[in-house]
Structures are given as C-alpha cells and as structure tokens.
Specification:
The complex is a heterodimer of chains A (392) and B (388). Chain A has 392 residues and is α+β, with helices and mostly antiparallel strands. Chain A is 50% helix and 17% strand.
Chain lengths: 392, 388
C-alpha cells in the first residue's frame, strides 16, 4: 500500500512558512556552488574551444606559451617549405609566423593588464579558421593599425572601433573587431608582425609559428622534421593540445569547487535534517495513525524522504533562477573576468551558465535533500504506532 | 549571567538539533574564513614581500619590453638611489619539468645585498655568488620543490635565449614563498658572446632608495631622464608593480567575495531556522514563565542568548578549524596554481579568524532576535488559551 506523491508535496506546502528558511538555505547553497562552477567551466570552455584540429604550434623547445618563445627568421624559412603543409587559395603554404608580445595596457577601470598582442601576416586569417572579422576591416601592413578581439572592446582605454589604443611605444588605430567563437583569441589584439617586432626591439623577429597540416598528411613525420632540425631547438604541438594544456591549470580550480561544495552541502543537509526532524516530531500522531491504518514502514520512510527531496528541489528551482540572475548581473557589472597572472597574459572569460552546470546543481540539491531526509524518515518509520498514538 | 545555566539547559534539550545546527554553522563559517584567505593572499604578499623603498623601473610598454643596458648606470647615478640591480628574463626550463616552472633571471651579484637587504640571504652565499661565474641563488620554494641542495649542479635550458647553461647552486633565498632563480648576468652575456650575440639590454631595473620621502622624486627622475628617447620608461614602487601584476585577478576576487557572502547568508538562514523552531516548540512554557511573573526582557534575553551562544561556539570552532582545513587544501592542491598566483596561498591570518567569529556572533544575534521578539510579545492569555 503506498501513499500518493501528493501527500509529500502537500506537506511541504502546508508548512510553507516553516520550510521557507530551509528552502532558502538549499537555494543559497545551490547559487554559491553553481556560480563558482560556472566560473571555472567558463574559463575551461574558453581555453578548450581555442585552436583548430588541423593546426600545429611551433615554439622553442621548453616554452609553454607563445610569449616566452623566440625564433629566428631562418626557422620560419626552413619550416615554410616542408612537405605536408596545407596550401591556401593562392598556393602559398598555410604557415603563419607570429610575434606575440604581452604589453601592459591601461584598462578603463584605471588598472593595467598584460594583453596578448599577436603580430601576424595576412596568412594568419587562413590559418586561424576560427577568427573572423565582425566589424571594420583587417589592418593594413605598416600603417599602425590593429584589430581587437571582441573581449577587449571597452575593457581597455581606447579599445573601440575607430579609436586609438596605446601600448608598446606608440598608439595604434583600431580598424576592426574580430570574433573567434568565444575562444581566447577574443582576448587578443592583432597587428602587423613586422610592426610588432619593430616596436618590441626583440633580438628575434618571431615568437612562434602556427601552421595548418595538409589533409591526409602524416603528422608524425612533419613533427619529427620540425623537431629534428639541429639548427633550432623547436617543439611542435597540436594546437588543440597546446590550449588543452593551458586549460589544465583550470582543472586545479576544481579542487576549490570541491572544497566549497562538500562543506556547504553538508551544512545544508544538516539544516534539511533539522527541518525534517521537526516535521516528524510535530506529526507523530499522524504517523501513528497511518501506521495503525496499515501503511507499512517502508511507505512512511519513502514519503518522508520524498518530502525532503521535494523541499530540496524547490530550493534548487529558486537557486537556479537566482544563479541565472546573479551571473547575468555579474557579467553586466564586471564585464569579462580576467584570468592568468603568471602567464603574463589576460584571458578574458565571459561568465555563462550552461545546462551542464545546472544539471550538476540539480544533482547536488537532490543529494542534499535525500541524505538530509534519510535519518528523520528513518525515525518516522521506526515509530511504534501504539506509542505514537498515545501522545494524542 | 544568573540565567546562563537555564540557557545552556535549553540548548541541551534537543541535542540532535543543537549538534546539527552547530555543525552547519561551523562548516559554513569555516568556508567563509577559507575563502577570505584568497583576497587576503594578495594583500599579504603586497604587505610582506614588497617594500615601499624599492622601485621598479621598466619600459613604458611593460616589462616584456627591453631597455638599453646603459640605463642601469644612469639610474644608479640619480641622487637618493642607494643601489640598483638589472634583471633580465632567462625563462629557464629545468630538464625534469620540461618547461618553465619557476621564474629565472640574470642579475648583477654585486648589487644583490644592497637592493634586497630584507631577503636575509646569507652573506657567505652572496660572496660565493659573486665569485663563481656559474653560481646561482635559488628561492627556498623552488629548492624544496625539486629537492635541490646547496652545491648541486643544475642545467636550465633558456626558452628565450639559444643557450642551455649549467649552474652551481651557491645559496638560497630563505623564504618559503620565494620561487626565483638568480644567475649572474655576466655568465649569460659570455654564453651569448660565444655565439656572436651581445647582451646589451635589460628588462627591469630594481632600485632601492635610501629615504622613503624621496621615492617620488627618484621615480620622477627615472622617467624624465629617458623621455623622448627610443625606450621611454615607467617607474613605480614594488608594491604598485605587484598590485598591477595581479590586477587582472580582481574580478575573480569579487566573485569569490560574492560566493562568500552567499555562504554567510546561508549560515544566517540555518541559525534563524533553528531559533524559530525552538521558540515555536516552547511557546507553552514561555507563556507559563510569563504567567508566573518573568518579564518580557528576560524571555527575550534568554532566547537571544541561546541562539548567540550556539552560533558563537559553533562558528568559533569552525573559524579555528580553518587553520587545519587550509593546510589540508594546500597539501592537496600543491600550493601553487598558475591561474591563481598569490590567491592560492590559503594562509589563514588572525584577522580572518576574528572576522569569522564576528560573523558568527552577528548571525546568532540577528537569527535570535526575530523569533525571541515574537515570543516575548505574544499575549500570555492567548497562548495559554490555545493550549489548554
């Protein structure tokens, strides 16, 4: 014999004032954890979504990012004519020599950030398929023009189409804005490779090379030929692996998430238990009656656990709505969220909540409700009908 | 005070509820304290490691732009400057790690003691650093990370210069948070010379000023002197340099604070829930107490005290446990995170524990006031009438 679902649901509603505080606790726990989860996931998505499965990154051996690598012109010339590299519409190899710099740029908020400036040649747009212009035009060589990643617009002083932005030794005209599917290219500023190299006065003209591998070509042979050249100590990495490695540092942030979620989950679970114990206590007579009518222990247990879970799910629903509102407010007030102090560049992450994060929060709230309700429900099921009824 | 035993008895009436509430408050306060260590990490770094009389002179475009080496001696000649040291990024990758895992710089050994007297480096080590061309001074953090000992030879492949150099560790920077690896500028210069390259640039010039009152003047001079030259400079105190360096983490810190505030609100709800349950269940005896002559103030006071004592004891325990908890997280996370930098130090300070306890006291008071107020004001006759 079972109790209808509505028994558990109605009980939550009947004592709404008493359970309101408990629901808020679960809602707050859901908001706190899912905002944090969304932050880490957004950072990861930005980094993981960067790069093309067809590209190789060539850097000096040991460098783990563009900014700490330097390559001589000869290395570019040697690589350009290796076999197995895709060719563009004009028949030229899709090899993009790049000069990456991290100048400090004034933000509109009055601080400074190290921005990744990528000096490129026209071939770059063919190699980086993800990147496309959404406003204005591409820069012209040697005319002091730059194209901004979408994330930088409005973040830095002068980072507007048609305005002038100051970094390095000079001011640059902003002639275009580019988009790259939410990837970290959107945190970058692109300019003419020669101008960037001249501005930096580095002893080498390039920091690294990106190239597109021809369809069907053997990756290993190409990688070996690049790395085995004794003149330059080079290292070739698949572009996806390169950015996945950068994303790995985001993984350690999950430690923090666990550190947050477990204690807050236990705390909310304790609170849920408290409320449920109080409910069992105040309904002792009712439980005794149900048992006397012939409802078995398992039914009582199930009904109370269900009640606790329903309570938690209401908390989740409110919490999920709160999370969406809060992240939207944060994204509005703070704009992009900067990451990456030690890498010398700033990845600008847009805080977004995806279905995956909400699903995780749902599971989280459900677990709190289930575990928090288990003990009180056990006590309810254990009540002896005679003693329970005697209280009346 | 006379009624303290009464309050404590009341707390002991429903031991399970008291334990659950206490546990929940304790855990939540622990979390608040733990998250407060993150923004605290930047402040602590700025306050402890940096100095206001040390000035950083670098290219106006940022530290990744270089200045001519000749600037160093010109900066050294500015009145008020006690000492200056040039620094150039070596970007050394230790073989075992395969990539850059700690910052390595080429500097001038003869000016270390005068520029960084606060680092407390053994003078004998600095003497060896001057004498041995291949000598290196390494921060304790890196020494411990790789189990290096003084006297050991290590080879670092530069990721910016086309060289791999072998070093002899001659001393350490006695600070567990110091990751630096310092080598002789001359050693790098000679290695480059062998390839026909001259090392005539410098990345950053660290300047120590004798008198704090002339710091501003020295910085102005260090900028004015190179105005309209091909490499214009910018100067700032060490503190401002690092504050800017970590500036991009500000938004992340704000989100951490928002999450912390949510957790604090959570504590409040848990405490308020328990307080209101306690009052509701005891409405009968409260009415009896009132009927036999105990005043409203007393009823109100004992109920608020009950909630406050519970929150304070539980919250205080949670706040103190933050020490053990953060040590555990440090052990698990390895203590260093590239994305978080100084945020991941998780060092608990007495200030943080104090604010955790403060939060608990306030939560206990606030949570207790509303139900206690209601209970104290409730007409006695009405309650008794309801029950009997």
């Amino acid at each position: 014999m079972g109790l209808p679902l509505s028994y558990s649901v109605r009980n939550v509603r009947a004592r709404l004032r008493r359970t309101a505080l408990m629901i808020s606790v679960i809602a707050l726990a859901v908001i706190a954890t899912s905002v944090f989860l969304a932050l880490i996931a957004s950072l990861e998505r930005t980094l993981v979504s960067t790069g093309s499965p067809r590209n190789l990154v060539v850097l000096r051996k040991g460098s783990d990012n563009d900014g700490s690598s330097m390559l001589p012109l000869e290395a570019y010339q040697a690589i350009r004519y290796l076999g197995g590299i895709a060719r563009g519409a004009d028949g030229q190899p899709l090899v993009s020599p790049e000069m990456v710099l991290q100048p400090s740029v004034q933000t509109t908020g009055g601080t400074r950030e190290n921005v990744l400036v990528r000096g490129v040649e026209p071939v770059a747009l063919a190699v980086h398929e993800q990147v496309r212009l959404v406003a204005g035009r591409m820069f012209r060589p040697s005319s002091g023009e730059v194209v901004l990643g979408r994330g930088t617009v409005g973040r830095y002083l002068g980072a507007e189409l048609g305005a002038e932005i100051a970094f390095g030794r000079r001011r640059w005209h902003v002639v275009g804005v580019m988009e790259a599917g939410g990837s970290s290219f959107e945190s970058e500023i692109w300019a003419d490779a020669r101008e960037v190299a001249a501005d930096s006065t580095r002893p080498f003209p390039y920091s690294g090379i990106r190239l597109t591998v021809a369809p069907g070509a053997d990756w290993d042979t190409l990688t070996r030929r690049i790395e085995d050249d004794p003149r330059f100590a080079l290292e070739a990495t698949r572009e996806l692996d390169y950015y996945a490695e950068q994303a790995e540092s985001a993984h350690t942030l999950y430690v923090l998430l666990v550190v947050l979620a477990i204690p807050i989950g236990i705390a909310a679970g304790f609170g849920a238990s408290n409320t449920m114990f109080a409910a069992v206590q105040s309904r002792t007579v009712e439980i005794g009656t149900l048992r006397a009518l012939g409802f078995p222990r398992a039914t009582i247990l199930r009904a109370f656990v269900l009640e606790s879970v329903v309570l938690a799910l209401v908390g989740f629903a409110i919490g999920a709505a709160g999370t969406l509102a809060l992240t939207a407010a944060i994204a509005e007030v703070l704009g992009g969220i900067g990451f990456g102090a030690a890498t010398f560049t700033t990845s600008i992450v847009r805080l977004e909540v995806s279905a995956r994060e909400l699903a995780a929060a749902l599971l989280f709230a459900g677990t709190i409700g289930f575990l928090g309700g288990l003990l009180p429900a056990w006590r309810a099921a254990g009540l002896r009908p005679v003693e329970a009824l005697r209280k009346a | 005070m006379r009624f303290l035993p009464f309050v404590l008895r009341n707390l002991g009436r429903n031991k399970l509820r008291t334990a659950l509430t206490g546990g929940a408050i304790g855990l939540a306060v622990l979390l608040v304290c733990f998250f407060l260590t993150m923004p605290g990490g930047i402040d602590a770094l700025l306050a402890r490691v940096t100095s206001n009389v040390r000035v950083c002179v670098h290219h106006k475009g940022g530290v990744v732009y270089q200045m001519p080496y000749a600037y160093v001696s010109r900066i050294r000649a500015i009145p008020g400057v006690v000492a200056a040291n040039s620094q150039i990024w070596y970007g050394g990758a230790y073989e075992e790690a395969g990539h850059v895992t700690f910052p390595s710089f080429a500097i001038e050994p003869e000016h270390v003691a005068a520029v960084w007297p606060d680092y407390g480096i053994d003078p004998a080590a600095l003497d060896r650093f001057r004498r041995f061309r291949d000598g290196a001074i390494v921060g304790r953090q890196t020494m411990q990370k790789y189990g290096w000992r003084i006297g050991q030879q290590v080879a670092l492949t530069s990721t910016v210069w086309p060289v791999t150099l072998s070093f002899r560790i001659v001393g350490e920077i006695p600070n567990e948070r110091a990751p630096h690896f310092w080598m002789q500028r001359e050693y790098l210069a000679q290695a480059l010379q062998a390839q026909g390259r001259a090392l005539d640039i410098v990345g950053v010039v660290w300047v120590r000023v004798g008198d704090p009152t002339v710091v501003g003047a020295v910085m102005e001079r260090a900028v004015a002197m190179f105005r309209n030259s091909p490499a214009e400079t910018a100067a700032e105190t060490e503190k401002s340099f690092f504050a800017n360096f970590f500036g991009s983490l500000q938004a992340f810190v704000k989100i951490i604070l928002v999450v912390t505030a949510l957790v604090a609100l959570c504590v409040l709800c848990i405490a308020a829930n328990t307080a209101s349950m306690a009052v509701r269940e005891r409405s009968r005896e409260i009415a009896v107490l009132r009927a036999i002559g105990f005043g409203r103030g007393l009823i109100f006071g004992t109920l608020v005290a009950e909630s406050t004592i519970l929150a304070t004891v539980a919250g205080g325990t949670g706040a103190l446990l933050t020490y053990a908890f953060s040590a555990m997280v440090r052990a698990v996370s390895g203590g260093w995170n590239r994305e978080l930098g100084p945020l991941a130090g998780f060092l608990v300070t007495p200030d943080i524990v104090a604010s955790g306890i403060g939060l608990a006291v306030v939560v206990g008071l606030v949570a207790g006031i509303a139900p206690a107020w209601g209970a104290a004001r409730r007409p006695v006759a009405a309650t008794l009438h309801e029950i009997f």
